Amino acid sequence: MPQETNYDAGIDEINKKLAEKYGLEVSSKRPIFRLVYSNTATERRLGDFSDFTNSGLFIRTVREVRETLKYSYLRDTWVLERLNWVGGENPELPEARGYSYECVWAFRDKFGTPLYPHFNIIELMLNIMINGPREKKTESDYEYEDEQKRLKESAVYFDMLESEGRSNLFAFEDAVFMDSTKVFTKGD
Q1: Helices (H) and strands (E) in the chain, counts
Q2: Overall number of domains in the chain
Q3: How far, in Å, CA of 49 to CA of 165, rounded?
Q4: Which residue range forms the structural domain that includes residue 26?
Q5: What is the mean pLDDT of residues 122-151?
Q6: pLDDT at 172
Q7: Least confident of 1-5, 34-38, 75-79, 135-139
Q8: In-domain check, residue 166
Q9: Cβ 72 vs Cβ 43: under 8 Å
Q10: Nearest to residue 70, comparing CAs of 34, 97, 37, 48?
Q11: Domain membership flag for residue 105
């Protein structure tokens, strides 16, 4: 289960690898992808907030910018984020200034149980996200592709022979092919 704080040496290493492999946004030098812990990821957001006393009595509702949990709906979960261009000013996120980190993947299983992220899994997910899924092929698909490649290469050489004729090495009809693996010496 993920730790309560967002310090984790393994996560630091994954974030370093993400920055190295997928790069930084040019103007701000922020990584394109990063991992954050849902319990500690916050953002300043404009909203309607209700204030209560310590004993639970309602005081007021006020519309203002406050620091809030970014993923309050995902407790104890590591989240993979991507830095996205969201346009100019966003009144709901006053500090976004054109870019905002948005959730790409929450590391949970199908039952909602938090999972610990591993770089090789993240790399596979990002590869599919960036390049699209790989086509599933059978052995006969590969054999067919190999045969098509061989036929195409053969056609190129037949076209060359047809258009250019025989090589100048065959200027005379009595040209001889020699086996290059045999070595002839003076006494042979």
Answers
A1: 3, 5
A2: 1
A3: 85
A4: 9-50+59-131
A5: 88
A6: 56
A7: 1-5
A8: no
A9: no
A10: 37
A11: yes
